[in-house]
Amino acid sequence: MPKQSTSPTAYLNGRFVPLDEARIPVLDRGFIFGDGVYEVIPAYSGYPFRMEQHLKRLQSSLDAIKLVNPMTSAQWGRLVKRMIALNAGKDQAVYLQVTRGVAKRDHAFPAEATPTVFMMSNPMSVPARELVTRGCACASATDNRWLRCDIKSTSLLGNVLMRQRAAEAGCLETIMFRDGFLSEASSSNVLVVHGKTVAAPPNNHLVLPGTTNDVVIEIVRKARIPLQLREITEDEVRSADEIWLTSATKEVLAVTRLDGKAVGAGTPGPVFRRVYKLYQNFKRTVMRRG
Ligand code: PLP
Q1: Which of 1, 96, 131, 221 has its CB surrounded by the most CB atoms within 10 Å?
Q2: What is the pTM for the complete model shown?
Q3: Cβ–Cβ under 8 Å, residues 34 and 159
C-alpha cells in the first residue's frame, strides 16, 4: 500500500496537491527573477480575515508589475476558503503567489506565458501572551531596499537580509530608516506613540500598505486617539514612548527594546494595551459575523 501523504494540501495551477509533491519548472520567472507577487491572509477559526483588502492589494501589486490577474475576486475567495477547509489548524496563514510563469530566460516580459498560481496554508498561532505582555526587541538599519516597497513582490532579498540581521541580534525585526525617516520593518509596519498621540508613516512607494496597519488605524480613529499620518524622523522613533509593529501574523505588538535600549518605560505602554484590546475585540466581532 502506498504511504498516505501527511503533507498539507497546496494548490498549484488548478490542482490541489500535497505540498511536498508540488513542483514548478526551473524556468518559472518566479524562481529565475523573483518576478511575482504574493499575499498572506490570516484565517481565524476557519474564516479569512480582511480577505477583500488582501485581494485588493494583490490587484495593486499585479497592476504594478503589469501582470493580468489570473482570477476574479470571487474565484480567489472560493479558492482561499477551500484551502482553509482542506488544511488543519484552527487558525491558519494562507499564502498565495502569482508569478509571470515559465519562459525562456530573458529579463523582458515573454510575449506569451501563463501565470503560475500557487497557494498553501500553514497553521498559525497568534503571538504568545508573553510576547504581547513583555513586548519584543528590534534592531535598526538604513533602509537600502528598492523604491517600490509598496509592491508585495516575491523579490524579498532586501527584507530577508534585514530579518536575518534581526535574528542575528536576537531580535524579532529590523526597523528601517531611509534618509533619516522611518519607513517600516523587515516584515511589518511600524507606528510610534508620543504621549497620547499615535503617528504612522503615510502609505507611499517606501512602505507596504499593511492590511493590519489599516485595521489599527481604523481602531485608533474610532477610539478618538489622536493620530498623525506623516513622515517620522529617526529621532522621533528613538525618543518615542511606544513603538508598535503590525502585520497579519503578528497582529499588533509592542517594541520594548530598540538596539538594546528600552523604549519608553521598557514595557508595553498604555496606548498599546488599549489598542491591543480593541484589536482583539474587532477580530472577535468580525469573526462572529463570519
Ligand atoms: N511591511 C512588510 C515589508 C511586510 O512584509 C509586511 C507583511 O508581511 C507588512 C509590512 C505588513 O503587512 P500586513 O499587515 O498586510 O501583513
Answers
A1: 96
A2: 0.96
A3: no
Q: Residue 228, by phi and psi: left (phi above 0), alpha (psi -120 to 50) or beta?
A: beta
Q: At what angle do helices 51-64 and 211-222 cross, to 10 degrees?
A: 130
Q: Which of 275, 268, 247, 269 is nearest to 135 (CA)?
A: 268
Strand partners, 254: 244
Alpha carbon distance 188, 213 (integer Å): 9
Ligand 1 centre from 192 Cα, in Å? 16
How is residue 16 written as a grid cell? Answer: 490541489
Classify the phi-psi angles of 108: left when phi > 0, otherwise alpha if psi is within -120 to 50, otherwise beta: beta
Tens-place pLDDT, residues 123-176: 999 999 999 999 999 999 999 999 999 999 999 999 999 999 999 999 999 999
Condensed to tens digits (0 to 9), the pLDDT of residues 67-96 reads 999 999 999 999 999 999 999 888 999 999
Question: Taking the alpha carbons of 138, 179, 158, 153 in that order, is the dihedral positive or negative?
Answer: positive
Cell numbers found for residue 289: 459575523
* CB-defined site of ligand 1, < 6 Å: 40, 159, 184, 187-189, 208, 210-213, 246-248
CA count, 13 A, side-chain hemisphere, 2: 3
Residue whose Cα lies nearest atom 2 of ligand 1: it is: 187
| CA–CA dist 253, 113 (Å, integer) | 41
